[in-house]
Design a protein that fits this description.
four-stranded mixed sheet; 6 strands; globular; binds zinc ion; OTT_1508_deam-like
């Protein structure tokens, strides 16, 4: 049994119990890989049904004449999700085949697919994703109404931006009405209409003559939001919602709108790529879907509570350990599966892993940092780095590293140990910088209540450095 520090670090929390947030990280993705990653991210996101618990990872392996899809979920893939994925891919294949015939250059989406084709496909998407969509929508409670009123007041009457804001609010009201009609009646003919409304809102916000003005208006009403936020919102958790469902201070209208549009944006990307001559073969080639069963691991950690950064008893409590059972996060599950396929079944390695949210620090560090670093150290025939998206910077527990010990007989070195050690080095380094930064900012506060914390942090720091 290897030393339990890697998993223990991933089970750390703030001294008040909150999540430790390290800097976000985004890998460089080669231009060629970007559309494939978009497909994988879209398929993973459109698998999500339950907004509270579903986290999907979809790995794509493309060859000249086939597409293999590995799909995993944190708690296992239900049969109905597999059926849904099959249905989506078969529809996309029909659309791709139909569009392939005449056009030489990438046609605008509007020309290559008919309005009803788009809305019908959107309806299939929405039917499965509706609970997630409704969850994003129901943030329109009293706090939302208050926020809208305040924005209107700030923007004033008769201004162009005020008019744009009102247009968006009207659109959202219409979408809300239709969504609740579907929720109440479950009539399927409502869904293409709902998709059409979402699509129209997306056009106004991202692709119309009003777009520059709207962008300016959103920047004004949500100051401090980076441009990246709109992209992140498609893949992120509901971090602006408190445990009791109320909106956290600083509720972002931009984020709200983009979360609502996320399903439509991913759907649109799939449709656009399905009719693009460069990518049409992804969808027209035969597809094989493999659902990865849950992988449970029994891991040893230093007990969670005594490992909180800033707890003075940190070092002495390192004496005790406990065993816990943990399921691999979906992305690590498919990651391990891809390595097995490459080494044991000699499947060609061109891989991309898409995930329905940003990755936690543990998973991201294994896949996007440690694994590529080890492949630079050793040339292993059949293994290449895997294209993925970024990390949300959070330590998310329960967490376990993948078990790659099977690989040693194929690669001739202890891949499992090297991945663990390299991942641990990266995470420990990030935690040290975090603790140092916290210690400095606490000192800077000069708050008498915080006076004891720098000591506790330096304790945590020294114990991290000793290991
Ligand atoms: Zn993870």
């Amino acid at each position: 049994m290897s030393a339990p520090l890697l998993e223990s670090y991933c089970h750390l929390s703030e001294d008040h119990g909150g999540t430790i947030a390290l800097p976000r990280d985004t890998p460089v993705v080669r231009d060629f890989d970007k559309p494939i990653l978009e497909v994988a991210n879209a398929l993973a996101t459109l698998c999500v049904h339950d907004p509270q618990s579903d986290v999907y990872a979809v790995a794509l392996r493309l060859t000249g004449d086939s597409l293999k899809i590995y799909v995993a979920e944190n708690n296992g893939v239900p049969e109905k999700t597999k059926n849904h994925l099959e249905k989506l891919l078969s529809k996309l294949s029909q659309i791709a085949t139909a569009s392939q015939s005449a056009l030489e250059n990438t046609p605008p989406l509007e020309d290559a697919t008919t309005e009803s084709q788009k809305n019908d496909f959107g309806a299939i998407v929405l039917k499965h994703s509706f609970p997630k969509f409704l969850h994003s929508l129901t943030k329109r409670g009293t706090p939302w109404t208050k926020r809208v009123a305040r924005i209107k007041e700030d923007l004033g009457d008769g201004d162009d931006k005020a008019e744009m804001f009102q247009t968006i609010v009207n659109n959202l009201d219409a979408i809300d009405g239709i969504a609740h009609l579907y929720d109440d009646t479950q009539k399927e003919w409502i869904l293409p209409m709902l998709y059409k409304c979402l699509s129209e809102l997306d056009t106004v916000i991202r692709r119309s003559s009003a777009t520059p003005l709207i962008t300016e208006m959103l920047k004004m009403i949500d100051p401090g939001d980076e441009d990246a936020l709109t992209r992140l919102a498609e893949l992120e958790d509901d971090t602006d919602i408190n445990a009791d469902g109320t909106l956290r201070r600083g509720f972002s209208m931009t984020r709200f709108i983009y979360r609502l549009l996320a399903i439509e944006i991913h759907t649109r990307r799939l449709l656009r790529l399905a009719v693009s001559p460069s990518f049409v073969k992804i969808f027209t080639n035969p597809v094989e879907i493999e659902c990865c069963p849950l992988r449970e691991r029994s891991i040893t950690i230093y007990p969670h509570n005594s490992l909180k950064l800033g707890t003075p008893g940190l070092v002495s409590s390192f004496e005790t350990t406990k065993e816990v059972k943990v399921s691999l996060h979906a992305e690590l599950n498919v990651f391990q599966r891809l390595l097995e396929a490459a080494l044991m079944k000699k499947e060609q390695p061109y891989w991309v892993i898409g995930i329905s949210k940003l990755m936690c620090v543990g998973c991201y560090t294994v896949i996007a940092k440690a694994f590529p670093a080890i492949l630079q150290r050793h040339t292993v025939h059949g293994l290449t780095p895997i294209t993925v998206q970024g990390s949300d910077g959070k330590l998310s527990s329960p967490w376990a590293a993948p078990d790659l010990s099977f690989a040693e007989q194929y690669v001739g070195f202890d891949l499992n140990l090297e991945v663990r050690e390299c991942t641990e080095k990266f995470i420990r380094g990030a935690l040290c910088r975090y603790a140092e930064h916290r210690s400095l900012s606490n000192k800077a506060e000069q708050n008498p209540h915080h006076n004891r914390i720098p000591d506790a942090y330096s304790l945590a720091l020294s114990s991290l450095r000793k290991t």
